[in-house]
Amino acid sequence: MNQQKPTRQRRRRRKRSPFRRLIRFVALIAILFFISAASYGGYLAYKIKANADKSYVDTKKSDLRMDNVKLGKDPVTILLIGIENYQEGDVGRADVIKLITINPETKEAAMVNIPRDTRTYLSSIDRKDKINHSYAYGKKGEREKAVMEATENLMGIPIDYFVSTNFNGFEDVVDELGGITVDVPFDFKQGSFKRMITFKKGPMKMDGEEALAFVRMRKQDPRGDIGRNERESEAIRAIMDEAISVRSITKADNVIDQLGNNVKTNITTTEMFAMRNFYKTIKNKEIKPIQLETYPETINGISYEIPRDESIQEIRKKLSKILNIEDEVPKTDNSNE
């Protein structure tokens, strides 16, 4: 049978390479934290607001929330979505899905990696499918909402905010920031669209082209998608660190222009600015990404990643504690029926 929908008891075009799917998420997190950090006077504030307003999408509160919450004041979740279009005219899929949970009072934060092939209930089609298909199945203008609902169905956690992005401009953003420094986990070689790049284990300063190659590599990683997810998170943290430290108005201006046309979010400009002090507080804290554990299974000829119930329960417990809703999270059905 279909997975039970979460209860309301709390009332609460171009053709693109699949290599690029996770990078757009890096671009989106850059704008989220960069915009909140780069307030250097009236002109820049105007630029920030103009671009943020252009990206803003209004959404209603989660059905798993009784009361409205506000970023920067209350414990909240933010769903980060990277959209991949595989061919001209394709609606696209949510091939990068990461769930961030933050508590501004306790200074706790967590980031959950959700595999794109995870099988879960999709409200928009009233059956189970891959979570990355939720975007394409959503109504026009509400596709991000469909991904939010699918994630709620999977995790049993209210999804308060989203930020979605496409790939355009990622390399330029990294270059405008002056590059990023990441910790390469092992030696490997990976081709960019121009050349073969050699990566050596240890800290490495990368430009945009190198950063793209670093995160797109999967086949040489002995841990496959899990290893790539960790490299994504490493690059995200490096971009946030560079963005928060920017002191050049020209550099800030260029980065905002690069990202302004490629992001959608339901986070207001005021809430973006409220993130600045929070990130500065946790900047030096090690936030290890949490991997949703799954196992492969073929159903009706289609390969899925089936979430392990014990992993769902463990993650939900951690996130509920951060959100201060530990005893209020509904049980979800992640069976294969």
Automatic annotation (TrEMBL):
Which positions, given as ranges, span the membrane? 21-46
Q: Give the protein family.
A: Belongs to the LytR/CpsA/Psr (LCP) family.
Q: Which domain of life is it from?
A: Bacteria
Q: Pfam families per the record?
A: LytR_cpsA_psr
> Keywords in UniProt for this one?
Membrane, Transmembrane, Transmembrane helix
Q: What is this protein called?
A: LCP family protein required for cell wall assembly
Q: Does the keyword Membrane apply?
A: yes
Using the record's annotation, list all stretches that form the Cell envelope-related transcriptional attenuator domain.
93-243
Q: Which InterPro entries match?
A: LytR/CpsA/Psr_CW_biosynth, LytR_CpsA_psr
Signal peptide coordinates = none
